[in-house]
Amino acid sequence: MSRIPTAWVSVVVVVAVLVVAGCTTTNTSSSKTMTSGTSDTDKKHRRSDALDNYIKLGLGYLSEGNRDGARFNFQKALEINSRSPGAHNGLALLYQLDKEYSLAEEHFRKALQYDSKYTRGRNNFGVFLYKRKRYDEAFEQLTIASEDVNYSRRARVFLSLGMAASRLGKEAEAKQAWEKALALDPRMSTPYFELADIYFREQDLPRAKIYLDRYEAMVGPTARALWLGVRLERAFANKNGEASKALALKKMFPYSKEYLAYKEWLAGQ
What is the pTM of this model? Predict the structure, then answer.
């Protein structure tokens, strides 16, 4: 058997080493790239998860009345992302409870500045404006919020929108909003009473009675419902029904403004 020249063997070995080295370098470089990419993605996910958790914790503390816990978590969320709409919305709700109304409005506006489609924040801002008796602005914000068909609390938006419209004397818009609220969530009680009141004033008495009965079935007797019931029963010439409602109003809510209105109404008969 012939022998392979030593020089050839050396060349083959060198080439093999170079090929292996080249493969190792390429694989190592590729591995580093993949590791780096995964690490960056993981970091982003961890930051996003931490941000969401801080906001959820803040809202949880807020619902329990723990304002210090809420403040801490919302501020931690803003340390992660100073442009977080959810964190600004949370701080706005906190400042609203603290009666720091200027700060509350500032953070509501920041939330919407950073995300104009943040319906939760816009709804909360609308309710805030309504409570501040800024009904025109509340109506505007709630109208925009009501257009988000994917918002999970859309029925609540229409309830608030109806209240703002009613304050502005926009009765048709109020009625439409409350009917929409019930279409989205028929378990809500307030729209039934508000619609009963509107239909009573419009002299659509049968419909007013239907809505009032549904409201009372869900909530039970209230001063407002009993007072409306007294006038409805009078309109239907149901003396027994009127007397029953009036007696309940007197016994259950003797110091209410509705009972005072009832006594003035009787005096004027």
Answer: 0.81
